[in-house]
Structure formats: structure tokens, C-alpha cells
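User: Continuing from earlier, I have the next pair ready.

Assistant: Great, send them over.

User: Here they are, in order.

Assistant: Folding the first of the pair now:
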Amino acid sequence: MQNRQLGAAGPRVSALGLGCMGMSGMYGPADRAESIATIHAALDAGIDLLDTGDFYGVGHNEMLIGEALRTRRREDVLISVKFGALRDPALNWTGYDARPAAVRNFLSYSLQRLGVDYIDIYRPARLDPEVPIEDTIGAVAEMVQAGYVRQIGLSEVGPDTIRRAAAVHPICDLQIEYSLISRGIEDSILPTCRELGIGITAYGVLSRGLISGHWQAGQSGAGDFRGHSPRFQQGNVERNLALVEELRRIAAAKGASVAQIAIAWVAAQGEDIVPLVGARRRDRLDEALGALDVTLTPEDLAAIGRAVPKGAAAGERYDPKQMATLDSERG
């Protein structure tokens, strides 16, 4: 497994991370045994970065990871946890809470569900508009001092918030969506992170399966939030899948799959970027791992850029209500 440095203040991690969200219902039903087998297969392949959120499946995802790690050495795994998103018993999203008292509360529950003594990277899932980022990061920094957290990360925040957070405590990485069809970070967020020595863990590298080469229009089922995602809606999805067909021709010429080309493209944007792949089955994991063997030449990158120009996607990456909560989308 290749490795990358996750920010100037962070650890070395595998060149791919495993995003575990899809194993807890966000994309519809998932098979528990297959999910655990996929986590084990990722670890066996050398992936050591597992990403989760305490709100994925309202705790289910952390308990799943905890179960999967019972037979593994704790020091061989880096666990990244997002906190702060609030959900009600009907699983609706009800806002964010990043007050210092909430930070300590969320962390204690995560440690218990995961069955660990510390979390490697702890990060607010979004900016809480009611709480200064300095207060949130300061509270996490106290948990670093107490030994419950090793590194502090951020998620979906913009340049000003990144600078303010980094002034309180060294920031390991920013987790943010980045793919061939979600390139907004290139304008100011990525340069800010590079200036400050902050790594990027890129989620949505396949745009939730849309540019995986496997998606078909109308595929969303019950419990799959993609059924409400703008890029998957009729009128948009057809235009986006046309981009995938352009990628498919490039992939065929390289002897690779569409997903491998899309993952390799993100990885090729800098050694400070670690793509998170959301595989929840071993066959999809195997395909993603194959991206590490794909070398994109300058000519390949130019061809990909022509096939999927910046801004070519139809539809926003979230619905308007969620877009309004993203500090990363402001200014």
C-alpha cells in the first residue's frame, strides 16, 4: 500500500481511505456481514484510515466499526470521526451542535460505541453557526491534551474558518467533497489548506456512485438519500451520465474502469490529497484498490479535462437546504 502524509501536523496514512457511511443505511439497506468483511478486506489490503460519523445510522456505523476492529490491533488503524449533526427519532436532520459541552458529550459516546480509548482524528461535521469555531476547536484541543483525541480535523468549511481554526490548534486535514464533477475547492479552499500545511481527505470521489460507471437512472431505492439529490434527478442525471460515457472511452483505452479513472484523477491532484472510497462490498473495494495501479499521464489528464470540464455537472451536490449549511460554499 502506498502512503501519503496527511498534513504537516498529521500522520502518514494509506493512499486510500475507507468511508464507511454507506454501511449504515444512507444508500439504502446494507448487509452487516458483508460490511464487516469489507472493512477487514480493506485493512488486509493496507488501508489504515477508516472514516465515520457519530450520526451515521445514529450510532450504528461506529458500533459496526467497533465490532469489525475487535480482532485487529488498535495501533494498526486510524479512525476519523465527525460529530455535531443532530437527528431525531424519525432520523430527520435537525441541525448542528458544536458547543464545548456537546463536544465532550459526543466524544464520550463515540469512544464507547467504537470500543476504543482514543480517536485518531476528530472533527466537527459542519460549522455550527451559533458557536465560534475557536470555541469548538478549543474544546477538541482540550481532549487532545487529555489523551482522548490524537489529531484535529475540519469538514466542509471555507478559507476564513480554516484560518481561524488553525490559529487555535494545528489542523491535520480538511474533509470535503472533491471529484471530477465537484471541483469548487480548487478556487480558494485548496490553496488555503496548502498554505497552512493542511491535508485533504476527499469524500464523494465517485459523486456517491454517479460517476462510478455502474449507476443507472432511476436506480435509487427506499432509504437512499440519492433519490433526493439534485444531481440524480430527472433532467440532471441524464446529462451527468453522458459525462460518464465520455470517461468510459478514456478508461477503456487505459484498460481501467470508470471508477478507477475517477479515483486516480483525484489522487493525481496532489500528494496531500487522500481519496476516501465508499465501498460497502468487497468487489467494489477491489475495484477501488485497482485505482492505485492507474498512472495518469499529462495527456490522460488533459483528455479527462476535456471529457469532464470543470463545472460540467448538472445540479448542485446537495439540496438547497443542505447547501445553505455549508460554510465551504460561502463566498
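And the other member of the pair:
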Amino acid sequence: MTPEYRPVRPSNPPAFNIPGIVLATIALLAAIHFVRMNLLSEDSDFRVLLDFALIPACYSLPIQECLSRPSGADLWAPFTHAFLHGSWGHLGANTLWLVAFGTPVARRLGSGRFVLFSLAGALGGAALFYIMNPDLLQPMIGASGVVSALMGGACRFALGAPGQLTSGAIALAPRMTVAQSLSNRTVLIFTLIFFATNIAIGSVGFGGDGASVAWEAHLGGFALGFLAFGFFDPVPWRNTHH
């Protein structure tokens, strides 16, 4: 095993045991949203969105609002958009999925790799969203790309793990190759439902709070998490084949 990876094998793991890095992530997202909703003026919050949300048109068109952004905004926006949410409902939905899929991934990767993997998921979601909406001026925000990447990563070891494994043992389950994952019935059905649902959402433009759903970011994040999980996985390759 790599030196920094120290898996824990509790004999009787508690029923409710969320990794600290997942709780810290949720707390950070909630704190940011609380500040935006309760402590910032409308103008100040607009400035936050302009400077930290992903605005595809800012990469493609000479728009005055985009020119007023800090010089580094184009570099950090593909990551910082994931820290902003449109409503408490939006944040709550992402929190539920973050707990469900972030827990097994965080246990397996450890805190440092979990953070890097999550940032990569944000970038993957932002990339596909931009590719499909290069001239869109509306800001794209939310951790959905990150959550989707965690789903994709979980497909490589957790969803296809034997049902009798404990939550702690799932973190050490063999990592499947991409081909093996797509040959696993549970993973294949989950992936097909995920893509079909998001494509359907995109086709009807469904969304809450007067905003559309960034389904492209969901697909981009999932694809990156699914395909690139092996680059972040600290479990030795020899332990992935039995």
C-alpha cells in the first residue's frame, strides 16, 4: 500500500459514520451559502457570482461584465462554481448525494485524495458544460459535478461489491476496470439510469427555483469520476484482481 493510505477495519462499525472530510465539505458549503443568503447585500452577492461562478460566455465573448472580473477568474471558476448554490434546497439535495457516495469514496481515498478527486470532478463537470454551452451568459453553480464524479468513482468499486460486505470493507473492495464495471449488472443499470435521467431533464429543461438543471455538468463529472478513478485510487492494483 502507499504510505499515506491507512485503511481502518472496524469490527463493529457504527451505523452512522460519515468521514470527517465529507462533514467538513458539507459544513463549508453550508457556511458559504449562509453568508451569501444572510450577510451579503444583493450587489455583493452578484459580485460573488460574477467572480466565482462558471460563466461560459466569459471564455468566448468580449462581454463587459466578464471584462470586469479579476484576471484569475477564468482559472478558478471551473472549480469555485462548485462552492456556490442557488438555494438551500439545491444545497440540501447535493448534501444527501454527497453523504451517500462521498462516504465510501472518502474512506477509500483518504482526505487529501478525496479533495483532489472532488476538484477534478468539478473541472470535468465545468468542461462538458462549457463545451455544450459556449455562449451562455447565465452562471452555472453547484456541487453537482463533484457529486456526480463521486457516483462515477463509486461505480468502480462500491456499487459492484458483494452485498454482504460491511461499510468498512466496501472501501477495500477490488477496483474493477472500466470494462468490468460496465459488465456488472448493478453498475450498468445505475449508469444507464443516471444518463437517461439527466438527458431527459435536459430535454425538458426542468429545474427548481426558476433555474434550469446543469445536466451537462452532471454527465461531465460522472464521466471523469468513472474513467479517472484509478489515477486517484491508493489501493494497489494487485489487490484489484482475484
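Worth noting for the second one:
The CA atoms of residues 73 and 237 lie 38 Å apart. DSSP finds twelve helices and no strands in the chain.
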